[in-house]
Write a structure and sequence with these properties.
By secondary structure, the protein is an alpha+beta fold. It folds into three domains: 59 residues, no CATH class; 129 residues, Apoptosis, Tumor Necrosis Factor Receptor Associated Protein 2, Chain A, CATH 2.60.210.10; 52 residues, no CATH class. It is built from six helices and 17 strands. Strands 6, 7, 8, 9 and 12 form a five-stranded antiparallel beta sheet that branches. Helix 4 crosses helix 5. The N terminus is likely disordered. This is MATH domain-containing protein.
């Protein structure tokens, strides 16, 4: 009796799926249907938003020209970050916004977007987006800087209070996991009909029926298989009585 083993594999969740060599197997002298093992590459990300309020912005700008202001640390994706504002060096200069990685001895990949909020009107500026970049603690990535002019700041400042929104997306390193194969054994096709055919050839019909003078013959084993009544009659206690 041949048994065929079939391996069923799950689908990969992204385009980073690679295939290994196919494996041959056999069971009960029959070759098994084999498919290549697979692995799945997944990338996880985390998002977070921080609001940084700067009260007395004009005073900061005049007293601390050319210096920077940092927000409190906030956590996104398992890392600590801060929003840094580089104040204009001169009147009418540009304000620079920057995302900093604070976690010590760490490196991360992240993208971010800045915009101003006016709490009184609910208005918000357009977003200044920073693409996905590599960040390292203690280092400033100049590509992560965005600049805006003072008139844009004054448009969204309310009662000399500036609110900066920073939306951060941290992208973790890809992970590759093996997809476990699930084996299912297919039942071989039934040989019952073949066995029954051989029995009928060897034993023939061994039961005779008389129906209104017309005689019919049939194999007892077939009647027993199809009818509980005949099964009891031919192979049960009734057989001894008969």
């Amino acid at each position: 009796m041949a048994v065929v083993a079939r391996r069923r594999l799950g689908l990969a969740r992204c385009s980073c799926t690679h295939h290994g060599a196919s494996v041959e197997a056999s069971s009960y002298a029959a070759a098994a249907d084999s498919t290549a093992p697979t692995s799945t590459c997944t990338v996880e990300s985390a998002q977070g938003t921080h609001l940084f309020h700067i009260a007395g912005y004009n005073l900061h700008e005049h007293l601390r020209a050319g210096t920077s202001i940092c927000s409190d640390p906030f956590s996104v994706g398992g890392y600590d970050w801060a929003v840094q504002l580089l104040l204009p060096r001169r009147e009418g200069g540009a304000l620079v916004l920057l995302l900093k990685l604070l976690t010590k001895n760490a490196a991360a990949r992240a993208s971010c977007a800045f915009r101003f909020h006016n709490p009184a009107t609910g208005a918000a500026s357009a977003r200044w987006s920073v693409p996905l970049l590599h960040y390292r603690s203690g280092l400033v990535n100049k590509r992560a800087q965005v600049s805006t002019f003072r008139w844009n700041v004054l448009m969204y400042a309310h009662d000399d209070r500036l609110t900066v929104e920073c939306a951060v997306t941290v992208v973790h390193e890809p992970k590759v996991s093996e997809t476990k194969a699930v084996f299912a054994v297919e039942e071989p096709p039934s040989e019952q009909s073949e066995h029954l055919g051989r029995i009928l050839e060897e034993e023939g019909c061994d039961v005779t029926f008389d129906v209104q003078g017309e005689v019919f013959t049939a194999p007892k084993i077939v009647l027993g298989m199809r009818s509980p009544v005949f099964k009891e009659k031919f192979y049960g206690p009734e057989m001894e009585k008969g």
